[in-house]
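Justification of resources, computational component.

The compute hours requested in this renewal are based largely on the per-chain cost of generating structure records like the one below. Each record pairs the submitted sequence with a full structure-token output. That output is archived, and it is also reused by downstream analysis tasks.
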Amino acid sequence: MVKNLLNLFFPKVCYACNNLLADNEAYVCTECRHNLPVTNYHFKAEDDVKKVLYGRVELENATALLHFHKKGMVQHLLHGLKYRGYEDIGVFLGKWLGNELKTIEAYKQVDAVIPVPLHKKKLKKRGYNQVEKFGQEIAQALNVPYIDSVLLKTTSTKTQVFKERIARWNNNNEVFSITNLDIITNKHILLVDDIITTGATIEACTTELVKASNVKISLATMAIA
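The structure output for this chain reads:
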């Protein structure tokens, strides 16, 4: 009864197309999910994500769930996640990718999931890290801890997602720091983020994480541009 009333006054809509969801659908309608541009990188063991960072950082494994296209469905989803408070999009994508990664031997070796952090000013303004629920769902699927107390962002920068690629290269001055090194010593870390574009953010994070002794790093993102 209560559920029916809630659906009447606050109907659930698809985060991708804004159409009403059927009773058996959650987050994204069946048609949109079918049309989302999946990469399947982790199933095909392709190195497209690694290639973005070739010669800059060493990764054990790297994948992205979706292809990002300007003005496409994935951009619409990420915009809703980051700027409209639709945190459930992170849950949806995290459950999806987590359920796939837990079936792959390479990702069964992961010891912990660590998110790319937000600066405390941006975190206070937005109220949440858009990567948090995504990372938590993956950690739960892999049965490992989600740790957000190791990697810190020490500079506040404007969003990079929808800037042109060259502008992102020129403007990327993100600075991260690391604390509690002992937590990740001798561990295989899965670093998670929303989107990989130039790879500069991942490179900056990885540079800090490898300061821990004998740490291995893999990467999983919602999308790749």
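DSSP finds ten helices and six strands in the chain. Residues 36-224 form a domain with the Rossmann fold fold (CATH 3.40.50).
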